[in-house]
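Listing S7. Sequence submitted for prediction.
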Amino acid sequence: MDALNKAKEPFKFYTQLHMPELTGLKAANLQELLDLIKTVPGSVIYHHTHRFLQQHQYLSPEPPNDFAYWITGILGEEELGELLYSIDTIQYTTIRELRDEIVRTIENYIIQHPRSLHKFATPGEEFHFVKSVSFIFPTPYTASDLKEFQAVLQRVSINSIYFHMFEARLRIGRGTNDFSNWLEDSLSEKRLANKIASLDPYTHTMENLRITLIKLIEKRIVESMEKPSETELSLPRP
């Protein structure tokens, strides 16, 4: 039987802590919201989109973003809310691209529905812009092969899984994740890497995602142990 490949470089698990910080900026209607979305720092857009996925990851299969949530619930513009809900946050590899899509969606809606600008939030229900301040920490966990990788995935926090599966898309800028990169580059497990990269985050809670990852890796481990070695293949049959 083939032994599991050892990685060229061990995978080091990290985790991330986000601290929300008020910006003092707020919007009472759609135009004010749009103007601020165009100008606030990327850490603000991140907080109201990607952070919303983690904070509300139990909302499956399609968690919305803060902008859609406020526009629907406070301004009552359900059609625009649906359009913003449908933006696939994870497919964008930069905050700039995601911001541009949100802006484009709101601008097009205002052109088609100019009366939407006349709706105002009541005092106390304005949209308050918050930015996300991030702190990255190493964990004590590393993995050098698939068995070790599977074992660590059972132990790390969901914050670590979120960091490597979701945050990595923005950090790497390749539309993939840390796990898939390591599996392909260090273990030559391209097929497994592609399966993990193709997982739809909207169909999983973070704990379900953990379970799915573990099952995919476990299946690959079983396959590798069942595959006959080159020596066995070369032996003559009796």
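Caption to Listing S7: primary sequence and predicted structure tokens for the chain studied. The chain has eleven helices and two strands. The longest helix spans residues 206-226.
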